[in-house]
């Protein structure tokens, strides 16, 4: 095949791409330190879409898939620690996640089909920074922490401070997302995704919430990033779902796009808030 030719109908010539495969996490971090142009990849469920549509921005990649140390899901005292390379299937099957963060299990079940769930990783979903990412409202509502590591140090960024704009984050080019940490949750957890289908479709609106002494609500696909709605949360804490719905109508800024209209997203979001409050009401 001639250089630059299409491969299997793809619009990006894969022979123009370079892949480096580290032997360990330390090796990967050293590679990033020495070459800031390297783009980390793991399950490739989004990367291959970009290759096919010719929208791939990078050409030199760092393959993290073999680094098994980043797949572990465990408890450290009262903190759930999910390795960045944990797949959705591993999250679904984890007894720790099922016990402490069941809304994450529910979101993972609705991401694609078995093939995507076996390859897609939570670290990739976080790094991809899509405002429609299905696990992201869960992490926002759970007040998760993103653990970032470079060859020089490690730091933790609150999930709700991690995104700086549309598909932009606080991760530096020399850093990798190595884990997600979530403190033990109190209160009833709730998750809903609204899309063309229950799974294997990008969400039109996605919401995760926790009902406790301090209600927490996070929403996707209604802003450039996943958003928490603090004024709505305060209204819920005061006990009025009608007031909360009025406030939420002011807090979100949905847009029209190819998947839905702003009016539809607004209506659905308000309905989801009411459904969350009704479903989690104390019997």
Describe the protein.
The protein has helices at 25-34, 47-53, 88-93, 95-100, 102-109, 114-119, 122-128, 136-141, 230-237, 241-251, 262-279, and strands at residues 18-20, 39-41, 60-63, 73-76, 79-83, 145-149, 154-158, 163-165, 168-169, 176-183, 188-195, 203-211, 216-220, 227-228. The protein is α+β, with helices and mostly antiparallel strands and 283 residues long. It folds into 3 domains: 14-63, 2-Layer Sandwich (Uridine Diphospho-n-acetylenolpyruvylglucosamine Reductase, domain 2), CATH 3.30.43; 68-183, Uridine Diphospho-n-acetylenolpyruvylglucosamine Reductase, domain 3, CATH 3.30.465; 188-279, CO dehydrogenase flavoprotein, C-terminal domain (Enolase-like, domain 1). A hairpin with a 6-residue loop joins β13 (216-220) and β14. Residues 1-10 have low confidence and may be disordered.
What proportion of the residues form beta strands (DSSP E)? 15-25%
Give the % helix. Answer: 25-40%
Gyration radius, in Å: 19 Å
Q: How many structural domains does the protein architecture include?
A: 3
Helix-strand pattern, N to C? EHEHEEEHHHHHHEEEEEEEEEHHH
What topology emerges from the helices and strands here?
Elements: E1 18-20, H1 25-34, E2 39-41, H2 47-53, E3 60-63, E4 73-76, E5 79-83, H3 88-93, H4 95-100, H5 102-109, H6 114-119, H7 122-128, H8 136-141, E6 145-149, E7 154-158, E8 163-165, E9 168-169, E10 176-183, E11 188-195, E12 203-211, E13 216-220, E14 227-228, H9 230-237, H10 241-251, H11 262-279
Keywords:
4-stranded antiparallel β-sheet, disordered N terminus, 283 residues, 11 helices, alpha+beta, Uridine Diphospho-n-acetylenolpyruvylglucosamine Reductase, domain 2, Enolase-like, domain 1, 5-stranded antiparallel β-sheet, Uridine Diphospho-n-acetylenolpyruvylglucosamine Reductase, domain 3, 14 strands
């Amino acid at each position: 095949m001639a250089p630059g030719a299409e491969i299997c109908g793809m619009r990006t010539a894969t022979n123009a791409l370079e892949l480096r495969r580290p032997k360990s996490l330390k090796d990967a971090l050293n590679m990033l330190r020495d070459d800031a142009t390297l783009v980390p990849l793991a399950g490739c469920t989004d990367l291959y879409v970009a290759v096919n549509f010719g929208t791939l921005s990078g050409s030199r990649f760092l393959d993290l898939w073999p680094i098994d140390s980043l797949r572990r899901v465990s408890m450290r005292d009262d903190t759930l620690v999910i390795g960045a390379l944990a797949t959705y299937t591993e999250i679904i099957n984890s007894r720790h996640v099922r016990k402490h963060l069941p809304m994450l299990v529910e979101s993972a079940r609705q991401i694609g089909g078995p093939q995507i769930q076996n390859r897609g990783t939570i670290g990739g979903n976080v790094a991809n920074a899509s405002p429609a990412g299905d696990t992201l409202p869960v992490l926002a509502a759970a007040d998760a922490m993103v653990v970032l590591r470079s060859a020089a140090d490690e730091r933790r960024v609150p999930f709700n401070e991690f995104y700086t704009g549309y598909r932009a984050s606080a991760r530096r080019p020399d850093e990798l997302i190595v884990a997600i940490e979530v403190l033990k949750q109190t209160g009833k957890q709730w998750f809903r995704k609204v899309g063309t289908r229950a799974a294997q479709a990008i969400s039109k609106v996605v919401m995760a919430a926790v009902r406790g002494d301090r209600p927490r609500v996070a929403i996707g696909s209604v802003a450039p990033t996943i958003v928490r709605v603090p004024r709505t949360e305060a209204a819920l804490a005061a006990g009025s779902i009608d007031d909360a719905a009025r406030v939420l109508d002011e807090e979100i800024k949905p847009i029209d796009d190819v998947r839905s209209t702003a009016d539809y997203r607004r209506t659905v979001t308000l309905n989801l808030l009411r459904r969350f409050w009704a479903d989690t009401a104390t019997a």
